[in-house]
Amino acid sequence: MIVRYDTREKVVGAFMLSIMILLALTVLAIGRSKDWFREKVTYFTTFKESYNLETNAAVKLFNADIGKVREVTLVGNVVHVRMSIFAEYAPRIRKDSIATVQSVNYIGNKYISITPGTPESPQLLADEEISSEEQQSVADLLAKFEVEETAKMVIRAVQDVSEVATLLRDPEGPLFAALTSINNSLSAVEVRVGAILDSLAVAVDKVPHTVDLVDRDLEKVHEIGVEIQANIALLQQVLTNVEVGSRDVPAITETTVKGIEEIRVGVEQIDEVVKSLKKSILIRGNLPPGPEVQVNDAGSRP
């Protein structure tokens, strides 16, 4: 039997099919956003109390979401927590991994933070227990940081500050004494600076006269320099003349020696001539008598 559908039934059927397809796509989109279709591995852990942990609370590794809390139940005297962790993060869950309950702040939503184990530790299998560590309470934190001792130290510090402030307000205290000493020192410095400024003013007044004297001295130095240059030129000329004259000294000396030698030879020749004339009979008789030789007998006695 062939069933025939009219146009209205076909339109209704197409509409219903479209609605079903749209619904399926919506479910797929929601499922993907809610991680319905991701493969998960189940683990559990236990705590001494629930810490207000709720179902669908996040499970984090290095502050990254890796799963959800599926169930929080009380088993005996401990709280049993079942978790679903994405399969791709399961290899990081080791025998020495630690699960702790944490929150963004003290009044925020709780979540489970898992510390990964060492690579040397074996991987934790599905449905096995992850070791847990209890969350520290406010009392534990206060005890850890020794708030009471810290408060006592703060009180002592405030008391010390109060005592210091009292000393500082005392007119006869060290602060006012130091300020008085500084004031006296500043006054002395001011007096010395005034004297220095006065001296500088006097020196500045004398500067033009000093500059004039320096200018005159420089002019005299310039004149002396000109005279020195002229004298140096004259001295160079004299030295040149001496150098030229010194070149003729050997010749003059040699000529003088030769003249003296000739004079000596002439004198010797004249002496020979005189001696020859004295020996001549004709001339010897006509020669004047020589000087009388007086004999003194120094050793005779009267």
Automatic annotation (TrEMBL):
The chain crosses the membrane at residues 12-30. Keywords: Membrane, Transmembrane, Transmembrane helix. InterPro entries: Mce/MlaD, MlaD_Phospholipid_Transporter. Residues 40-117 form the Mce/MlaD domain. This is Phospholipid/cholesterol/gamma-HCH transport system substrate-binding protein. The lineage of its organism: Bacteria, Pseudomonadati, Thermodesulfobacteriota, Desulfobacteria, Desulfobacterales. PANTHER family: INTERMEMBRANE PHOSPHOLIPID TRANSPORT SYSTEM BINDING PROTEIN MLAD, INTERMEMBRANE PHOSPHOLIPID TRANSPORT SYSTEM BINDING PROTEIN MLAD-RELATED. Pfam families: MlaD. It comes from Desulfoluna spongiiphila. The keyword DNA repair does not apply.
